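4.2 Preliminary Data

To establish feasibility before requesting continued support, the project team ran the inverse folding procedure on a target of 435 residues. The structure was first converted into the token representation described in Section 3, and no sequence information of any kind was made available to the design step. The complete token record follows.
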């Protein structure tokens, strides 16, 4: 699945075709391409239990995320899998089949055939890319020192401050910092009605936003090989901290539709559990977990943190408040400083076994700064893995285990103390209307 150009299609709960052009950077769900214009003439149906999806694709795509169909070194992969909640794809149900030989589509034939009309944007030329003509706010921070400015980009090139184009910075106030837990956060203020050639107004109702952050040192993700991959590269540290450069072909970028008029003026305290917190500092605890339910994506976003040294921390989902038959997620920092987050199942009073399907742990990341280790991950409300309990069930208790690592930090040992369980069942309401 690594470095695979993917097209996925299914009939949703409303009996409508959903088809997406995506790309796999690893053994995780494909990331949807920002350019969906390369799929044309799409249609599909489900009749008598048979799903049929049809589409056209240009022999030579204009999207850098796509492979050319005329290349002579392409293999084709055929996969299928379930759709949960009638909305989102899950892990393929059987191992995908791959052609034994490369397949090349010969688009150079001189035989003429009638071409179906290709839909184009209302404006002339190539359909607009989501990054084209974007009003941006860009920030960097080092400890408590930060810079933040109003920017604009005409296309997919590096954005520049509005002043470069003859505009002005319309931020009224801004603040930013690097948090003690290793995250960077910013706040800024801008008038809703600000509008110029380089500023889009913040309108009432739902509005489309894009976001991105820079790549981390020595953790680069590219669609194709770049100059830093060749032996003669003059600067292998080209992507330096706090420099505005390409965000990479990963989940470092994304988009979201948000209605700013319905946003709360203050964030409420997040639900969760903690113990062993430092006096006067509720963010530094021996064990702390918080969560946020994303009703739009039907996932629960978890954050775990601990001040314990050389330790693992975890989350369990149980039906009976006992270790046997408990769905478990464990996280730690290994000897190389890498984050390890695994999905497991405890069938008895012995180490939980690794699930065969690890795809239900999404957007996993973590780190240790200032003696505090923090881990974040997302989990679908309804997992497609039979080893996982559904988070939306009404009879789940949560377990809060932690313990020490082996001396080489490659594996976990038995929990230090018997894990605490929630006093009552906890249900994650994923059916609420997203705002």
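Position-by-position output of the design step:
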């Amino acid at each position: 699945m690594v470095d695979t150009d993917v097209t996925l299609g299914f009939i949703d709960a409303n009996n409508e075709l959903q088809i997406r052009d995506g790309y796999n950077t690893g053994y995780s769900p494909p990331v949807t391409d920002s350019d969906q214009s390369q799929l044309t003439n799409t249609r599909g149906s489900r009749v008598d239990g048979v799903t049929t999806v049809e589409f056209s694709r240009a022999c030579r795509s204009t999207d850098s995320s796509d492979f050319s169909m005329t290349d002579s070194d392409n293999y084709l992969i055929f996969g299928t899998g379930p759709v949960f909640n009638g909305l989102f794809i899950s892990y393929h149900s059987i191992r995908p089949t791959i052609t034994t030989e490369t397949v090349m589509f010969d688009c150079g034939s001189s035989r003429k055939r009638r071409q179906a009309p290709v839909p184009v944007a209302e404006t002339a030329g190539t359909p607009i890319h989501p990054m084209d003509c974007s009003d941006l706010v860009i920030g960097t921070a080092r400890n408590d020192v930060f810079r933040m400015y109003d920017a604009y980009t005409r296309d997919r090139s590096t954005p520049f401050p509005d002043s470069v184009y003859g505009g002005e910075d319309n931020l009224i106030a801004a603040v930013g910092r690097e948090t003690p837990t290793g995250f960077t956060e910013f706040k800024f203020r801008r008038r809703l009605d600000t509008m110029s050639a380089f500023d889009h107004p913040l309108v009432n109702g739902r509005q489309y936003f894009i976001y991105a952050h820079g790549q981390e040192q020595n953790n680069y993700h590219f669609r194709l090989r770049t100059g830093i991959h060749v032996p003669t590269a003059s600067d292998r540290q080209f992507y330096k901290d706090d420099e505005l450069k390409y965000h990479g072909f990963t989940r470092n970028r994304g988009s979201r539709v948000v209605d700013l008029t319905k946003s709360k003026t203050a964030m409420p305290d997040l639900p969760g559990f903690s113990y062993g917190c430092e006096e006067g500092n509720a963010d530094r605890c021996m064990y702390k977990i918080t969560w946020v339910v994303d009703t739009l994506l039907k996932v629960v976003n978890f954050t775990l943190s601990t001040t314990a040294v050389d330790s693992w921390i975890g989350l369990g989902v149980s039906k009976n408040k006992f270790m046997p038959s408990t769905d478990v997620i464990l996280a730690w920092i290994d000897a190389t400083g890498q984050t390890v987050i695994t999905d497991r199942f405890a069938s008895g009073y012995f180490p939980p076994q690794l699930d065969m399907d690890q795809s239900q742990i999404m957007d996993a990341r973590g780190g240790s700064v200032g003696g505090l280790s923090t881990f974040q991950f997302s989990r679908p409300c309804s997992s497609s893995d039979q080893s996982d309990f559904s988070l939306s069930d009404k009879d789940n208790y949560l377990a809060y285990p932690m313990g020490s690592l082996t001396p080489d930090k490659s594996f976990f040992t038995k929990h230090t103390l018997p894990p605490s369980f929630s006093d009552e069942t906890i249900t994650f309401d994923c059916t609420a209307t997203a705002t």
